[in-house]
Structures are given as C-alpha cells and as structure tokens.
Amino acid sequence: MIRLFRFKKNDLNPSHGKQIEYSASDVNEFFNFSTDEVSVLFEYCSIRPNDPLNGLQFHSTFKFSPARGDYKSYKNLDGSLNLKSFFLEKLHLNMVDNLNDMYALNKITKYTYLIVYIPRGLKYTNLNDLFNK
Questions:
Q1: Rounded Cα gap, residues 60 and 9, in angstroms
Q2: Which stretches of the chain drop beneath a pLDDT of 70?
C-alpha cells in the first residue's frame, strides 16, 4: 500500500521541538498502529540514478498523542538519524524551498516502509514506478 504526503511546516522546521505528525486518519487508514509507541524502519528509495543515499535505512519512534488521536515522531533517544533529521540533514530540505514537495511511503510491513522524496514538478504516471526505479 502506498500513500502520498505533502510536507507540513513542522516537518521541515529545524527546531527539534517541532515534530512530524500523522493524523488519526493517516494512522487508521494507512499505518494501523495500535500501541502508544512504535519504532518504524524506513528505507530510502531515490528516484535519482546512482544516488548514494539510495537504500539508506533509519528508524523513527512514533508516540501516540491521546488528546488529538495522532502520532508524533520525536528525536531518537540515542541521537541516531530519524525521519525529520533525514529530511533536514540528508536530503537538505527546508521550509522555503521544499514546502510544496511531497513524499510517498510504501508499506512493506506494519513497521517497515520504503520512502521516496518527490520534488514539486516531477512528472510521474504511477507511484509504483517511483518505488521500482
């Protein structure tokens, strides 16, 4: 199952206090998390040939927020690369240049996802093609 996400300001805000959030509908319709805290494995699938980041794997911890019914990705306790630091430090995305870009997640298992960065203006006909390049 593949889902497309548009970046939100918090996603690309360099403040570590601003988390990446997934709404209750994202969780119910796509992720299907059922515990208060989950560790998710991401593997980057680049659309650029010979991208040295292609295949990079990293974990992110998501915590349930009962007040809103959503999940938030926080900084990993061990300081390792997480979803937000991947966007900021590896892909060098920022709020000014990349807020209209998107990313897609391809669900492999409940806790394993392929991730593809999709810059605005990219022409594609099928999300499956992005994951198969």
A1: 19
A2: 123-133
Amino acid at 46: S
Cα–Cα distances (Å) from 13 to 7, 25, 53, 88, 122, in that order, read 10, 23, 22, 8, 23
Distance CA 18, CA 53 (A): 25
Map residue 40 onto helix, strand or coil.
strand
pLDDT of 99: 94
Pairing of strands 37-44, 112-118: parallel
> What's residue 69's pLDDT?
83
Whole-angstrom distance, CA of residue 32 vs CA of residue 26:
8
Exposed/middle/buried for residue 54 (C-beta within 10 Å: 0-12, 13-18, 19+)? middle
> How crowded is residue 30: how many other Cβ atoms within 10 Å of its Cβ?
17
Q: What Cα–Cα distance (Å) separates residue 97 from each residue in 70, 86, 88, 100? A: 27, 16, 12, 8
* Residue whose entry in the numeric block shows the structure tokens 């630091």: 85
Alpha-carbon gap, residue 3 to 103, rounded angstroms: 9
